[in-house]
Amino acid sequence: MIKRRINTAFIGAICLSIAACGTTESNTPNPTYETYIGVGETFKHTHFQDISGRKIDLTQQAGNKLIILFATWCSDSKRTFSELNASPLVNDDTLTILAIGREENSNSLAEFAKNYRVTVPLITDEDRKIYSQYANKGIPRLILLDENNRVVKTLIGESGNIIEQITWN
């Protein structure tokens, strides 16, 4: 009976780790979730066009920035946007928030925006050209930038309350 419980617990743990979209902080060693940009480094992408055609230039955006790399199919990404909608961050005029849909097109992002009441600019990354410059896997990935577009912190959010971990200190 004990052996059966151990096997069941072990199999359950494996299933949870495989099913997850990703969780860890970038400064925590984790061989499966690599981060290719570190604290203090400048975010490589500064110019975007969102799904409505609006051009966004991060160099012209004052204050802190929050970049969310996500996928519409990921339950952790869905929860993160629900948490974001419930937080004061989404209404902070001193904060620029961009959401980049990994392997997503304009149609899937527009549908996601409607279903999850996303009001921040959504950017497509159909071929992972943006995402692959910052990480190998793990979504949603939140990259916090300072006023000079330098990385302050990177979070991978599969655990609840990831929005509460967002600070620029």
Task: Tell me the series of helices and strands, N- to C-terminal.
Answer: HEEEEHEHEEE
The CATH superfamily appears as: Glutaredoxin
Summarize the amount of helix as a percent range. Answer: 10-25%
Widest sheet: strand ordering: 1-8-7-4-5-6
Name of the top-level CATH class: Alpha Beta
What Rg do the Cα atoms give? 17 Å
Q: Whole-Å distance between the termini? A: 50 Å
Number of domains: 1
**Gross CATH architecture:** 3-Layer(aba) Sandwich
Shape designation: globular
Weakly predicted, low-confidence segments:
1-19, 22-30
How many β-strand stretches? 8
CATH topology: Glutaredoxin
Strand residue percentage: 15-25%
Which structural category fits the helices and strands? alpha/beta
Arithmetic mean of pLDDT: 85
* Helical segment count: 3
Can you walk through the features of this model?
This is Alkyl hydroperoxide reductase subunit C/ Thiol specific antioxidant domain-containing protein. One of its GO terms (molecular function) is oxidoreductase activity. Residues 39-152 form the Alkyl hydroperoxide reductase subunit C/ Thiol specific antioxidant domain. Residues 1-19 form the signal peptide. One of its GO terms (biological process) is cytochrome complex assembly. This protein is 24% helix and 22% strand. It has a single domain (22-165), classed as Glutaredoxin (3-Layer(aba) Sandwich), CATH 3.40.30. With 169 residues, the protein is an alpha/beta fold. The model is unreliable at 1-19 and 22-30 (pLDDT under 50). The protein has 3 helices and 8 strands; from the N terminus they run H-E-E-E-E-H-E-H-E-E-E. The strands form 2 sheets. It has a 6-stranded mixed β-sheet with strand order 1-8-7-4-5-6. Strand 2 and strand 3 (55-57) form a beta hairpin. It starts with a helix and ends in a 13-residue tail after the last strand. The longest helix has 18 residues, at 2-19.
